[in-house]
Specification:
The protein is of the alpha/beta class. About 20% of the residues lie in helices and about 30% in strands. Strand 2 and strand 3 form a beta hairpin. The radius of gyration is 19 Å and the shape is globular.
Length: about 260
């Protein structure tokens, strides 16, 4: 397991942490926020204005904390080993430090990274861009990639020999009962997963469960999906008439290794 993971987003030199800073040999330094995360996003834009809003982040965090997606977390936890990187980690709900390694996680949204760091789970969290991850080459043993853009070149660069990428996408019947409520003609999700000349698909497995979801959480869950903003408000309001709904959770986990 390679110990050096984070690199300077300015020059690519190794980043070493002191109590309140990360510094590289060239003298570039990055302050650690009071919550424990570091902003490694090299841009003139404020990280506060990128990614999820504070309101949507708080709603998503509250939903996950109620344990609805616990089955997916339980399925992923035993797979974590060595240096773990949660790509586009959100609030870090699925993260835990493996006994034989270390945990790292990043997201474009500072709001989300702040929530992840507040978990105090032993992970090192940072704000960064997926296409320009400040992560050393060939140092990650386990990469988690949940419901986020697929960037095979970036993934292959950081994966160690023998490392694995666990990519989670919605299964065909994910949230089917919500779709039946909202849409007149619902259709299943396709299960076409990305192929790459850099990554070999090793296997797939499914995590599925039916959970009872109450009224306020139904709207929050629907807002977490990509089709929320493509759905007319009048159709979204159909969920308001539902007090509780049995909802199918259907996750497809695709396991990749570097070619």
């Amino acid at each position: 397991m390679k110990e050096q993971v984070l690199v300077c987003p300015v020059c690519g030199g190794a980043l070493l942490r002191t109590e309140r800073q990360y510094t590289c040999p060239a003298g570039h330094s990055f302050d650690v926020a009071k919550e424990g995360y570091v902003n490694l996003l090299c841009t003139s834009k404020s990280a506060d204005k990128m990614g999820d809003s504070k309101e949507s982040a708080a709603a998503r965090h509250a939903f996950l904390e109620r344990g609805y997606y616990g089955c997916l977390k339980e399925a992923l936890t035993p797979l974590l080993h060595g240096n773990v990187l949660d790509i586009c980690c959100g609030e870090g709900y699925y993260d835990s430090v493996p006994a034989d390694g270390a945990l790292y996680g990043f997201d474009l949204s500072k709001t989300m990274v702040r929530l992840a760091a507040k978990r105090k789970n032993g992970g090192q969290y940072f704000v960064a861009n997926l296409a320009r991850m400040p992560v050393a080459e060939s140092c990650i043993d386990t990469a988690l990639h949940l419901f986020a853009p697929f960037h095979d070149r970036a993934f292959a660069r950081v994966l160690a020999p023998g490392g694995r990428l666990y990519s989670v996408t919605p299964g065909a019947h994910h949230l089917w009962q919500i779709k039946e409520t909202v849409y007149d003609r619902p259709y299943p999700n396709d299960e076409i997963v990305p192929k790459s000349p850099l990554l070999e698909m090793e296997r797939q497995f499914r995590v599925a469960q039916e959970v009872q979801i109450s009224a306020p959480d139904l709207q929050t869950l629907f807002a977490m999906t990509p089709y929320y903003y493509r759905t007319a408000p009048t159709l979204r309001q159909r969920l308001d008439a539902i007090e509780q709904l049995p909802v199918t959770l259907d996750f497809l986990v695709t396991v990749y290794k570097k070619r």
